[in-house]
Each structure stands twice: as C-alpha cells, then as structure tokens.
Amino acid sequence: MAERITPRSEDFGQWYVDVVLNAKLADYSPVKGCMVIRPTGYAIWEKIQQQLDSMFKETGHVNAYFPLFIPESFLHKEAEHVEGFAPECAVVTHGGGKKLEEPLVIRPTSETIINAMFTKWIQSYRDLPMLINQWANVVRWEMRTKLFLRTTEFLWQEGHTCHATEKEAREETIRMLNIYKKFAEEYMAIPIIDGIKTESEKFAGAVETYCIEMLMQDGRALQGGTSHLLGQNFAKAFGTKYLSKEGKQEYVWQTSWGVSTRLVGAIVLAHSDDKGLVLPPRLAPLQCVIIPIFKKDFDSSKLLEKINELKDKLKDKVSVKIDDTENNSPGFKFHQYEIEGVPVRVEIGPKDFENGVFTIARRDTGEKFTIPFKDAPKKIEGLMEEIQNAMFKKAKDILDSRTFTMDDYEAFKTKCEEGGMFLLHWCGRRECEDQIKADTKATIRCLSFDYKKEKGKCICCGKPSERRVHFARSH
Amino acid sequence: MAERITPRSEDFGQWYVDVVLNAKLADYSPVKGCMVIRPTGYAIWEKIQQQLDSMFKETGHVNAYFPLFIPESFLHKEAEHVEGFAPECAVVTHGGGKKLEEPLVIRPTSETIINAMFTKWIQSYRDLPMLINQWANVVRWEMRTKLFLRTTEFLWQEGHTCHATEKEAREETIRMLNIYKKFAEEYMAIPIIDGIKTESEKFAGAVETYCIEMLMQDGRALQGGTSHLLGQNFAKAFGTKYLSKEGKQEYVWQTSWGVSTRLVGAIVLAHSDDKGLVLPPRLAPLQCVIIPIFKKDFDSSKLLEKINELKDKLKDKVSVKIDDTENNSPGFKFHQYEIEGVPVRVEIGPKDFENGVFTIARRDTGEKFTIPFKDAPKKIEGLMEEIQNAMFKKAKDILDSRTFTMDDYEAFKTKCEEGGMFLLHWCGRRECEDQIKADTKATIRCLSFDYKKEKGKCICCGKPSERRVHFARSH
C-alpha cells in the first residue's frame, strides 16, 4: 500500500511530497492548484484550530463569518491592496444562469468586505476595540503549487481588529504575533525568528507587516504567520469612523493577522524523516498506538487484557488506540504508524508478557526500550512532554547550527546554495534587496526584534549599515 | 441602539428580521444574497457544530476538506444532479488574470468532487465503509433570500459515505437522520417529524431523501436536515468501485447528509417572542447573566462580592457573565439581554442583598422570583434543564395543536391560510401533489415514519390512498 519515501538526501522536494501522500495528509485533486485535505491531515488542522481559537478567545476575540464574494470595486478602493491581489484573483462572472452586472472576486483575504461591515457597525468609541476573527477558505491563483505550502485554495484564520488609537493597534499587532510565536514554539515545536518585513515584502495595504519565520530541514525558510498594522488605510478607503470621547469623527486604527493550513506543511518540513511523518505530541491526533504481537500457542486474551488495562489508564491523558486487527502483520503495522507519525508505539508479545513489560518505541528518535507494566502509564504520559521538548530542541539546534553571520558577498553566494539563515549587513535600500535576490534567490525574511546595533557595511553595495538582517531562500 | 421589534401578530416576516438584526445574529452584506454572520450568531453556530461534530465522530466519521471549485463537466456526469443544480450555480470563468479553459462551478454540494476522490481512494472491501464529513461553505444562487433561511452562500456540514452493500448504506442514511432528530429535539428543543420525501422533493441525484421537518410559530414548516440514500448513482457516474471479498469489482453504495446555518434561523422562528431572541440553554453561548443594581448610599462592593461568589460557583457548570458596566442603566441591560435571548438573568440590588436573595428572571416565560443566596447555584444550574424541557414542551404543544387531520379539500384550502401541519390522504401521484401546491402553496413535507395504515381517498382526486402524509406551507 505505502509507496517508497524518497530519502531527503536524494531529493528533498520529492521526499516532502512522499511523506504527505504516504501519511495520507493530503492528495491532489482534479481541480488545478487545489488539494484535498484527507482525514489524517485535517485532524492535525483541527488540533491547530482548537488551540489557536482558544488563544484568540482568551485575548478577547470573537469569531464571525463574512461573504466569500467580494465586489470587484471593493478591491479597488485601497490602491496598494488591489495592486497586490488583483492578479491572483478568481472571478465569478455568472450566477444563477445570468451574467453578473459586477463581477465578484473570491476573497483572497477579507479586509475590504469586512471594512464595509465595520463602517456599518462602528459608531462611537464605545464600540471599540472591535476584535473579530474568521476561520475561512480563501483563494489566490497560483501557478506553481505544493501540497499545503502553496495552493490556490487554502484554509486559514484571519483576524481583523479596530482600535481608537495607533498605539492600541500596534499593541494588538504584536500581541497576536506573540500568540503565533508561542503556538509555533510550544505546540509545533518549531523555533521562530520574529520581526518586521521590509517594504517590499509587506502585505499589500499594510503600514507594517510583522512575521514569524522558521527554518526547515533543507535550510530554506518558511513564513509561518503574519500580523499587519494596517494603520488607517482601509478605514479611509471605506470610511470607517467613530465618534471619539471628545465628540470628533475619527478614523479607526486597524490590524489583521493570519495563519493557514500551510502550518501543516511546516510541521512536515521541520520534523519528519526518511521513514515518514514525525508529529509533535501536542498536535498529534493520535499520540500512542498499542500493538499486540499475537503468537500461536500463546493465549492472546492475556495480551488483550494487559493492553486494555493500559489503555484505560492512559485515555484521560493521552490520545490512545489499540490496533489488534489481524489483517496485517505487526511489522507492517509498525511501519504504517511510523509513516503516520504517531509519537509513541507500545508493543507487547508473549516474551514481554512473561517479563512483565511493554516495549516502547519513540517515533522521534527511533529508540526502543522496555518498561514494567506498573510504570508504563506514567512513563508514557511523561514521554509526551519529553518528545515535545526533544523535538523543539532538535529543531532549535538545526536553526542555530545553520545560522551564519557573513560579510563577504562572494562567500555568501556560495554558502547560500547549501541553505541556511544568513545574518547580513544591509543598507536598507530596495535596490540591494533586489540585487541580492537576483544573485542568490535569498530574500530578507525579516528585521528581527532580537538584534544588536553594530556598525557595518551593506554586503551588496558597501554603504553603511546599523544592523544585520535575516536573509534566506524560502519555501 | 435597539430598534423596535415588530410584534409577530403584526407582521411575522418582519418580526423575524427584527429579532435577527436586533440580537445581532446576522446582518445584510453589500454582496447580493449573502449575509454576514455576526459574533453572537456565529457563537450559536459554533455550539451547533461542536455538538454535531462530536455526534458524528462517536459514530465513526472523520472530517476532511475538498475543493471549493468543481469542474463544470463533473456536474454533468450525473444527469439528475446537473438538472437540479446547474441553474443555481455561481461560475468562475477567470483566474489569475486569464480566461479558464474549463469554467469552475462553486460547490453547491460536493457529491461530484468527493466521488472523484473516492474513486482514487477506494480499492477493496477493506477500504469500506468510508465515512467522511466536511464543514464548509456552499453557494446556491438565490433570487429571494432571507437571513439564515435562504442565502446564496451558507455554511453547512455534508457527510459523504461509501458502503459495500445497499443495506449498510440504508442503515447509515437512517442513522444520520436519527442523529439530526436527536440534535433537533434535545438541543434545539424543537420536536420533529421524520420521514421520506416524495420523488419531486428529493435531492437531485438521490434514490431516496429522508428529512426532519419542523413546525414554526407562524404555522409554516421548515426542513431542518436531510439524509440521502444515493444508491450507486454517483458511483456509476464516477466509476467508484471496490474489489469484493469474492474478488469481483462492485460499485459502492453511498449516502450523503447535511444541515446548515439555517438551523440558527429555525431556533429563532421556533422559540423567540416579541421581546427578541429566546435560546434553548444547551445552545446558548451565554446561559446566565448577572446584573448588580447599584444605588447611591449603598456600598456596591458588597453586591460585587456576592455576585463574584455566585459566578465562581456556577462557572464550571453554566456559562456565566457579570455585567457591572456603569454606562447603561439596569433596565437598559435587562432589555438588551432579553433581545439577545440569554436564558437566565440574575439581579441583585440593595433590597435583595438585605433580604439575602437574588432575583432571578427566566427568559422563556418571563417569570421573576427570588432565591436565597445559598440555594442559588443549584437552582440556576437546574433551571437550565428546566428551561430546555419547557421550551421543548411548548414547541411540542404548538406542533400538536396545529396539526390537523382533514378530508375535505375546500375546508383544507381555507384552513391552510392560517398555517399548520395537515395530515391528508394522497393517492401518491405527482399530478395531485402539484395541484395541491398550485391551489394552496402547501407541499408534502414528508411521508412520516410514524403513521398508521388507513384506507381513505386522495383529498385532491378521490382515488384510493393507504395512509395520510404531512402537508404544509414551508419557509
């Protein structure tokens, strides 16, 4: 059933596709550029949703739902926005058998349609802040697609907020970026670099775009999430005003922020190995699988009794399943659950039983060891935390060992071929950013919050620079 | 802020819109036929989703996500299906700035695109049953729209399953209908009539359509959910086959079933009153609001201490909020929470405090009474169940008192003007079904499971009939 997974060393791109398809996370669809999220992949997305949704609600946000369709004219109200998104839009020209008077664009993002509603809903400072989130599908026409990472349609959440002051909007922008950071590090087990995007990389229509950036196993960066300070751009385009305490009509200050099903792809790229998927326990729909190894001449009911006992002790703390089907051999099953990334596998055969132990296999390290019956529930529960931490540490080691501080352009160009994050001096000018991209395919991932002032020279033009910024090739 | 709610007796249609808008459940959008689900309405939808999703998962279903777009040619593969849905489709003709080679239809329902995937995924009997659900938005072009009840875009869940035998598929169809029934009665507090649709009312492409039908306060019926036995229609159109145990290639047997955001509208229509929304406690995002009545010369901290104590005792069992804002008067707040349908309101002023009691107001009946401090947590918790049951009983009384058994066509025609469910003899012929609809606007809601054999004459043509069926005008 399972096809061969190409080793990473042979072809990283093919390895990624093989892992996604073999773990049944997603599949290609008959619609160009669109994928199907299969149950195993969707269950991971549900775990992501549950956790993020509760973090959003804890910080005062509420969910709502806005139309899929956006009148084409709305997109045109904010000049930068239309320039950025119009080329990627899918357009509905016919509905109910008739040509539409005005074409409808399928939302590539919802700032415009949501602002039209904000304008209706917000009258006074008492209505602020307005903190809304939407879980939805969006469409951005893509030429080159890749399962989870870049598809024409994808699922995401988009937060949209209105505030009375710029200060509050700025605080919100950073608050949500910090939630993404916390989520990426503590749940996805992926260390991030947080900072601000350059002018050329910012969201079309934003004043500033903040992001979390990750480094994948192939040394390429991946943008994990963005949080935008929109200023008053959309408020002015849509007339979103409020009556201040002082009785004046003022434009609201806004933010928007989002993460998507791309995060599922990030988990694959950051942690998986040549055997298949490796999932951080906190986002694994199934955390532990128990497999009995039946033998002739050994009473299988003894094994079943033991594993049911273990399952009962675990089930309130760990998501657990017994696989005692007899269609497939234990070896086949081990292989399957490895492909699917289940963090812990418990085995028990007649010999284990006689020794009073379970055999435990860790998916992340491949380690196997035995544990006395009575210690097993506690040990397995503890393993979840242990694996979660070990996976973060491993990803952090990759990031640290592949972050390079460089000052020589030629050396950088060569090194860049191997991948990695590069801390380079940059003069701040678009020309150099573009030149470096043309020469190396590396882009500025962000101007990280965490940096030290340091006098230096732009690696491209030699003009003075005050700090280093993160460059990398990206997914 | 709140506008007047038109009394039901004056204009039921306007009353419905007023309740929805004033409770901020939804709003009109700038896109024709599409609505915005506001946070208060979306929170109800989230409660519906959570409960149904857990019921689906308990019965072995898993969630997945399929593309929004369907190639136009797919729709044409099943003859009845395209005839039913093509006139309602929104069509994407352009993407990424170019005209598409083949237009894409926005899913009105996903049988076709999902069957294309089933064909890929299902090889042998070991892959069956395949039990998949999707939470998604769908689009059906509508001329006359009504918030929640009929909108061009709406949110729903659609289950799609494949089975090895017709028997299993039929069992699944009924299993899911029963889940809808249970949910409607136990959570929405709305009694239902379950049964099978006539040929003319069944889903385009199904062999049989089962449904749950409800009676609203205005005497009009509302279809709450449908469960379809698809037979092998889509399997044959898409070549969805499996290798049987006996080594033969067989077409799978299928079902599909769905409910939508329309259920939010049903809750409004079934339970609300001239003051605004009335929510069944099990689906109320906020179940209890506590409002202190501050007075000059009375230490407000005493009140706050008492209500915080109450909140702490309630919070694990009841969703509760204190509203101690001072912008608005208690009377204004009472009014607001009535409009929003919060099942229980707790008040406490200086006099209550001195008497050692809280004043409790039930939203469903309007009753007000006092309760000693120490009894309050238990009483309020119990009230949730009490209100839930009372609301169901009230809705059941409406259904019972407005169900009429009639045999005279002229009398029925007159009576039908007032609304109600009508149990009529029908010969089983399309002509009479159409004639009755033309004469009275009433349609056959279903051939209910619960009926007794009874010889009679078709109310329209006088030909023999074996049973009565449910007729009503519907929303």
Of all chain pairs, the largest interface belongs to: A-B, 57 and 57 residues
Strand content of chain A: 25-35%
Q: What is the CATH architecture descriptor of the largest domain in chain A?
A: 2-Layer Sandwich
Indicate the multimeric state: homodimer
Total strand count of chain A, please?
25
Helix coverage percent of chain A: 25-40%
Kindly report the CATH topology of the largest domain in chain A.
BirA Bifunctional Protein, domain 2
Determine and state the CATH class of the largest domain in chain A: Alpha Beta
Largest beta sheet of chain A, briefly? 11 strands, mixed
Summarize the structure.
The structure is a homodimer of 475-residue chains. Chain A is α+β, with helices and mostly antiparallel strands.
What's the structural blueprint in terms of helices and strands?
Two copies of one chain form a homodimer.
Chain A: H1 12-22, E1 26-28, E2 35-37, H2 39-58, E3 62-63, E4 69-71, H3 72-75, H4 79-85, E5 90-95, E6 98-106, H5 111-121, E7 130-139, E8 153-163, H6 166-186, E9 193-196, E10 208-215, E11 221-231, H7 233-238, E12 241-243, E13 249-251, E14 253-260, H8 262-271, E15 288-292, H9 300-314, E16 320-322, H10 330-340, E17 344-348, H11 350-355, E18 357-362, E19 368-372, H12 376-401, E20 403-405, H13 409-416, E21 421-425, H14 430-440, E22 443-448, E23 456-457, E24 464-465, E25 468-472
Parallel strand pairs in A: 3-7, 15-16, 15-17, 20-21
Antiparallel strand pairs in A: 1-2, 4-6, 5-6, 7-8, 8-14, 9-10, 9-22, 10-11, 11-14, 12-13, 17-18, 18-19, 21-25, 22-25, 23-24
